[in-house]
Sequence to fold (361 residues):
Amino acid sequence: MAHEVRGVVALSKGAPVTVETIIVPDPGPGEALVKVQACGVCHTDLHYREGGINDDFPFLLGHEAAGIVEAVGDDVTSVAPGDFVILNWRAVCGQCRACLRGRPWYCFNTHNAKQKMTLADGTVLSPALGIGAFVEKTLVAAGQCTKVDPAASPAAAGLLGCGVMAGLGAAINTGAVGRGDSVAVIGCGGVGNAAIAGARLAGAGKIIAVDLDGRKLSWARDLGATDVVNASGTDPVEAIRSLTGGNGADVVIDAVGRPETYKQAFYARDLAGTVVLVGVPTPEMKLELPLLDVFGRGGSLKSSWYGDCLPSRDFPMLVDLYLQGRLDLDAFVSETIALDGVEKAFEKMHKGEVLRSVVVF
Ligand SMILES: NC(=O)c1ccc[n+]([C@@H]2O[C@H](COP(=O)([O-])OP(=O)(O)OC[C@H]3O[C@@H](n4cnc5c(N)ncnc54)[C@H](O)[C@@H]3O)[C@@H](O)[C@H]2O)c1
Ligand SMILES: [Zn+2]
Ligand SMILES: [Zn+2]
Fold:
């Protein structure tokens, strides 16, 4: 039996998104049907709508979600109907070269549902990041469902499914921030502010937030920044150096992803320090650096895909920290909206008015 539900679709490049009738198949082998309770609006959804990811329109948008498993395929044992889950886009295969080496967070063959969700006329939909969760019910691979404590608010917990996990993991996993480290984060949207929260959790001493927008910096202070730098009027490299005894920070995280912010991160870091790139650049961007500086400054230059997270390891742990009051996920939920509010949420995101708008069902 197929399910007829409502969902947010980008029908063609650049056109405003619309709410459409979606046909969702019953779960087959290895699949789960999830009743979505909440789904955050991420910059990547907007990238899909603008044709910046690929041209496989129409897209079923939404991918930062939590909900309740409604049904599973016959062979599924990892989750069961009634489980509260966060959806992930890293259902690891266990068999690729990364998984076999014990580094499943780099898995090169992650799973999605095999069956397709469609529009009422049978047009096959491309689900954003292999999820598609601005919809009342969605079909995913069972491995994309990570069971967590149901005491958590779905709107807050769902954010761990993408941007907030990417930021937390950029600090904790990729940057390996440790007790007493100095950390600077360039760009304090949902991802950068999560990196700040991650640096605090990991025990960083000094946490410097850099943005062009004062609103973002005041949220950064709430989430753990010890110092803030408004780069619209101040050179961020000089400011970070002077806040770190003239040396630069141990770990600098670029949560914007542009050549100029990457260069700032590169030079605002102490000798032998670490740069983490978590913001996503666009194809035409090029980076130019003196190779002697790359050598002479030492340390490591890393990129962070999805915060190098392993959902089965990280989601339940972070939800537990949230429930203990040690990680303020609610601070990322700027507003809750209805399914037909996604287009307006894109505008607010563009104007920098929100960390996250979250669709609740
Ligand atoms: N690596 C991953 O797995 C992953 C996952 C999710 C999102 N992302 C990426 O992370 C990036 C940030 O996402 P977001 O949701 O936080 O976006 P956002 O638009 O909410 O935040 C970006 C922030 O950067 C600030 N900014 C822009 N230019 C700046 C500059 N020159 N100097 C300082 N600050 C500047 C903006 O004011 C804004 O606060 C995006 O590129 C997004 O695609 C990456
Ligand atoms: Zn794998
Ligand atoms: Zn996302």
About this structure: The chain has a mean pLDDT of 97. The first strand starts at residue 3 and ends at 10. The domain at 2-161+328-360 is CATH 3.90.180.10 (Quinone Oxidoreductase; Chain A, domain 1).
